[in-house]
Every structure is written in C-alpha cells, then in structure tokens.
Amino acid sequence: MPAPFTAARFTDLVDSLPATVPFVGPETQERARGRTFRARIGANENAFGPSPDAVAAMRAAAAEAWKYCDPENHDLRHAIAAAHGVAPEHVFVGEGIDGILGLVVRMLIGPGQPVVSSLGAYPTFNFHVAGFGGRLVTVPYRDDREDPEALIAAARHESASLVYIANPDNPMGTWWPAADIVRMVDAVPDGTLLLLDEAYAEFAPDGVAPDLDPSDPRVLRLRTFSKVHGLAGIRVGYAIGAAPLIRSFDKVRNHFGISRISQAGALAAIRDSDHVVRVRREVVKARTRIGAIAQANGLVTLPSATNFGAVDCGRDGAYARRVLQALVARDVFVRMPGVAPLDRCIRIGCGRPEELDILAEEFAAALAEAAAG
Amino acid sequence: MPAPFTAARFTDLVDSLPATVPFVGPETQERARGRTFRARIGANENAFGPSPDAVAAMRAAAAEAWKYCDPENHDLRHAIAAAHGVAPEHVFVGEGIDGILGLVVRMLIGPGQPVVSSLGAYPTFNFHVAGFGGRLVTVPYRDDREDPEALIAAARHESASLVYIANPDNPMGTWWPAADIVRMVDAVPDGTLLLLDEAYAEFAPDGVAPDLDPSDPRVLRLRTFSKVHGLAGIRVGYAIGAAPLIRSFDKVRNHFGISRISQAGALAAIRDSDHVVRVRREVVKARTRIGAIAQANGLVTLPSATNFGAVDCGRDGAYARRVLQALVARDVFVRMPGVAPLDRCIRIGCGRPEELDILAEEFAAALAEAAAG
Q1: Which of A327, A328, B37, B56 is the most exposed place for a label (fewest CB within 10 A)?
Q2: DSSP conformation letters of A41-52
Q3: GO molecular function, one example (chains A, B) (predicted)?
C-alpha cells in the first residue's frame, strides 16, 4: 500500500472541479440496462449515415494507419476552404466542435473571467468554461429561442471576451434568420468574440447561415462533420475566422490530434455534396414524421431547422422527464434539455423510418405511464 | 475591412506563446519539396503496420461512424486492463500520449510552476509545459541516457509537481533496467508525480518495463498504440496509475474525443499479441541492419531498445544536420535530436527492408556531401 505518499498536486482550479461527464452515452445506458436500444435517436446523430465515398476512403486509409496524420490537415483544410469559398488561412480543423470549444476557451478565458451563453444551451461549452476557471453568465431563452440581443447586452455589461450562440439552436432546434445573426455580429462589443456554433446549419433552410466576411475578427464560426456528414464518430470539426485567430490555435492544439482515417473520411465527405442533399431530404421527412407522431398524441413539436425535434410535452420538467424515462424503458434512446422552461420538451432525433416506427408504437404508452406518474 | 475592431482578447499566457509546431510532418516536407519520400523512417512509426485484425475492425467500424464513440472507452479500457493485469479503474484512454501529456500538465501545472525533464527529451511535452505556463527545468543526459538521479534531484530541489522520463528513451533509444526505474519511483519526492513515458516499452528486452503497483500515486505510466501496434494514425494512448488520478481526467478531457474507428482498431490490436511478436522480430532485424549500414560507413549506432537507432555521426551537430539534409535531399525522411551533445546523432527508424535498402544506397553519398559541405 503506497498510503504514506501524497497524491498528485493538482492546481487549485482543477482541484475545485467535479469529475464530471457532460453527457452519458447510450452505450453506458445500455451496459447499465443490460439491453441495447431499439431506436438510437437521442444524440442528434445522423442515422442516415456517412457518404459511401467517405466510408470507402476510411477503409482505404485503415491500412495506412501506421503513419501519423498530416499535422497541418493540409488537404482537408483546403477542401473545406474551397467548399466555403474562403482562403485556407481562415480554416482550422480540430477534434470536433467539442475540442475546438475547449481550445477557444483556453485561449481567451482566464480564471474568473466572464463568458456569456444561454441558460440551457450546450453543456459541453459550459464544461470547458468551468474547466478553465471562467465565470459563466447566462441569459434566458426567449420564446424557446436563444436571445441575441440579451446575449450581446450581457457581453457588453460583463465586458466578456467570449459569447456563445448556436444557430440553429441545440437543444430546441429553433433558429434566427441570417439577417439577425449579421445584426448580432455588428453589435458585438469591442474585444468580445462571438462563437457562432453552426453544427446544424446544413439542415436549416436557405437564409439561416449568414454570409460573413471570413476576415471579420468579431466572430468565429464552428462547423462539424458529426451532423449532416454523418461522421460523429470520427471527431472532426472546423472553425472559420480571421487568420490571426486561426493561426493562434497552433499555440495550444494537439498537433497530431486528428486521426489519419478521420482526415480521409472528412475529405471525401466534404466533396460529396450529393450525399448532403440526400441526407437533408431524409431529415426533412423524419422531422415531419416526428411532428406527426407528436400531433397524434395531442402534442406540439417546436419548429426545427436541425435533425431533431423538441416535442413539447405540455407540462413541467418532471413530467417530461417521466416521459423520457418511459421511452428509455421501452428501448428508445432520447434526451431532453436540462433546465426550465426548456425541459418541458423532449428532444427526438431524425431516426430512420424503422426507428420512428418504434417511437410511434411506444409513444402513447410512454405518455400514459408518465401521466400515471 | 473590419479593421476598426480589435482582435480576440487572448489570455496573457496565450498571448506570450509562439505559434509553433513541435514537429514538421513528412507531408509538409513533401509538399515543400514537390516530391514524396522513398523511405519514411523519420517519425518512429511502425513501418510493419497494424494487426490485420485491427485493420479489419476499423474497416467494419467505418460504416458505423455516424455514431458518437462510447465516451467511457469501456471495452478498450477493460481490454487494456486485462492485458496489463490491472483493474480498469487504473486505466485512462486518451488522444495519444501527446494528448495525455497535455491533460496531465494542465491538471498539475499552473503558471510559473517548475517541471523537470531532460535537455533534449520529448519536445511535445515541453510544448505542453510552455502552453500552461510551466517553467521547464532540464538536466543533461549522461552518457546518452536520461539521468534518473539528476532528474529526481532536480525535482526535489525545485519542489516540482511533475518530472518526466521516457524509458526507453526518445530520441536516443537508450534505456534503464527496470530496477533503476523502481529505484527512481522510490526516490520520487513527496508531492511529485513521475511521468514514465513507455511509448517504446514493447520493443525493449525483458527486464526494462518495471513491475509497478498500479495504485502507486507517485507514478503515471504512459503507453501508446502508435508504436508496436502500428497505429500512430489513430491517436490512442493510455495511462496506468492510481485510481484517483485516473478519475481526475474526467475533469478536463474531451469526453467524446476518441474516434469510434480508433476504439475498434485499438481493441483488436491489444488482443492480437501474435502481431506484436511479429513486429518485434522485424524491428530487431531492422535495428541490426541500421547498425550494419552505419558500421559499413565507419559509424557507430547507439544501443537501442526502441524501433529506431541513433547513428552517431562522430562530429558536431552542424555536421549531423548536414548528413540529415543530404539524406532528405535523397528522399530519405529522417529526424535528429535538437540539442547538443545529442545532436551529433541522426535518428533512423526501423523501416521495411526496401526502405533500408534505399538508406544503404544513399548513406555514403550523404556522408560525403556533409563532409564536403
């Protein structure tokens, strides 16, 4: 027993942090339940899968996995830049939006410094803010949408270095037209960076993703291969922003941190625009179906520009939580917002038709069980 | 032009950091040269490749890449634990040793705090120490080996929270017997954590990797799938240590940060011990050949317990650098240590026979060019 020795000396900040997990994965739940889910529609994954070209590229890259990746992500960065019509100096490739959020917070936020987000917005961003000692300042959603004016007002009031918004939003699925986002960028206080999380942008109708100058130092856009490209498992996201900000990631990133197989898959995916069109079509169908299933049970689904629908269970968070638990007990993996008033909803992903069949079969019974209480 | 707006407000620490790259990748060099390398023996990769089982597992996982990974890395952690005969609570899976080093430094080192390593040891560790504001204290190598006694003395003198050693060593390939490492662990000052980087341990003869109590809070062992398992491209490493330290990674890690395909590949690799035996046999042959090539040119290769050989060019760093440049100009990718007196050597990886054929053909001419230069 090595009892006489003290444990590692953590920094005061790390000592103060809880050992936490922003999300419990479905696999963890499956292990605890001893049973797999029949419908995996809780993590906003793209159940329609990746481009066959991406799968083929990853399979080919597997045998080359003995080589380190290209730490510059050169080919992928250039392909992303071409797809967005910007120069490669405006593109950073990172380990998913989650990883990029951590790097941005690390670069901009020191202990005690304020960061602005919405109450009930992306928990992993909050995890990173806490992890670097930032002070999270939240503003409420307004009518189930993030509130750009309130976010900007809070950023101004707090002199915050960082303000976060997702458009379209997660977990509610709601969105602002591009013009409102442009207005928000124009209102960003001097010295504040707007983190514009566009993970779901490709699911939104035209006129939601704004046309921004990539050299604008006031905003950093975040995109991902996890959603429309159906590659959540490969951990690749990217940021588009002013070149000096993009270059600064070199100070803090894990240079060889992207899998070589992931690089190959993402490169093939960004080139297969037909697949994106197919996925969007399937997602629209599934979103309509989720609305119909809710409606058949007397419930309303919030308008959504994402690959999920927030179904308003019509009562409080405790009730919605019971609905969720009843669905989980029926092997339907779903999640829900964490705070009121958003938590009157459960969030249902655009699953494949056979998954939504299971949802349709189980939903009435889950509601009845929740009502019984 | 958004010139009237200020750039993002970095923390003072990040502002002070250079935008750097610990290693320039061979792909970057190839792009600059406009020509590919004929022998890729500079990054200590495993040219004999991954287990066919791992390749098959990754190919199968590619189609499932639309799912996020299991953020607990459950199956992989359990398999690693079984392979090492420890409980899973002692195993942390991270984004390569590079990623794990960053997390450990972040957890233990605040601005200005001392960290001890060897002068000329792993640059990426130094990158992370600088990245979190740590003060790097180095001790020299002794007879081309890291110096455990000097490292411990420096850790004690500085009251350092962290001291790093690689055994076997990179970039020299030298090593200490297990008994010396055990003696080093026993001498670790109270409150210091020994980071024991064993990236190359599987290439070493028996009696190099010590038998350590996994509950010992004084030491954290690091292993990787990048070397003997031939999976540098998938970014998976792991740490073995005391359960409270292992749990603390949950405070700071990118929970969904390991690719699902990487999880599948690593899981298959750790189960294929026959492949490890095959790779070790090939590496020993290649190491012997590197020594013979050096000897045929009148040079000595340092004893090595790794998958590379440090060839002593017999003069100073400027000369060795010319030898390296002459090899690179002949399409042979190699690297070398960064500081004297280690930099009298060039580091040559255990390539495939056809790669070492190219080395053998080009080496004399490269030496002649360096001598003339």
Answers
A1: B56
A2: -SS---TT---H
A3: pyridoxal phosphate binding
CA B67-B68-B69 angle, 5° bins: 115
How is residue A280 written in tokens? 């969007």
Nearest-CB residue to A218 (from B5, B23, B61): B5
Q: Work out whether strand A308-312 and strand A300-301 pair parallel, antiparallel, or are unpaired.
A: antiparallel
For B19, B184, B274, the CA distances from B47, given in Å and listed in that order, are: 31, 33, 17
Question: What are the structural domains of chain A?
Answer: 22-49+274-372 (3.90.1150.10), 52-271 (3.40.640.10)
What are the chain B neighbours of A70 within 8 Å (beta carbons)?
Answer: 25, 27-28
Tell me if A2 and B215 make a contact (CB, 8 A cut-off).
yes
d(CA A32, CA A322): 18
Q: Which among B7, B107, B191 has CB closest to A6?
A: B191
Closest to A49 (Cβ–Cβ): which among B63, B72, B235? Answer: B63
Measured in angstroms, the CA of B178 and the nearest CA of chain A are apart by 19
pLDDT in tens, A180-224: 999 999 999 999 999 999 999 999 999 999 999 999 999 999 999
DSSP string of A60-87? HHHTTTTSPP-TT-HHHHHHHHHHHTS-
B45:A54 CB<8 A: no
Element (H, E) at A297: none
The tokens describing B98, both together, are 């590079």
B137 contact partners, CB below 8 Å, separation of at least 6: B114, B115, B116, B117, B154, B158, B160
Query: B251 and A14: CB-CB below 8 Å?
Result: yes
- B373 pLDDT band (50/70/90 cuts)? confident
pLDDT tens column, B141-154: 999 999 999 999 99
Cα dihedral sign for A63, A64, A67, A73?
negative
Q: Would you give the distance in Å from CA B170 to the centre of its chain?
A: 7
Query: Which residue is it, tokens 């979103």?
Result: A287
Task: Grade residue A331 by pLDDT with cuts at 50, 70 and 90.
Answer: very high
pLDDT of residue B194 exceeding 90: yes
What is the pLDDT averaged over residues A161-180?
Answer: 98
User: How many alpha carbons lie under 13 Å from residue A101 in its C-beta half-sphere?
Assistant: 33
* Separation of alpha carbons A163 and B310, rounded Å: 50
Separation CA A257–CA A262 (nearest Å): 10
Write the CB contacts of B158 (distance below 8 Å, at least 6 apart in sequence): B114, B116, B137
Which site among A24, A58, A259 would you substitute to test the B interface, given the most B Cβ atoms closer than 10 Å to its Cβ? A259
Q: Each residue of A121-135: pLDDT tens digit?
A: 999 999 999 999 999
> Is residue B14 a contact partner of residue B31, using CB atoms and an 8 Å limit?
no
| Stretch (H or E) spanning A336 | none
Please state the ipTM of this predicted complex: 0.97
N-to-C CA span, chain A: 49
DSSP state of A251: G
Find, among B219, B2, B107, B225, the residue nearest to A9 by Cα. B107
State how far residue B17 is from chain A, nearest Cα, in angstroms.
6
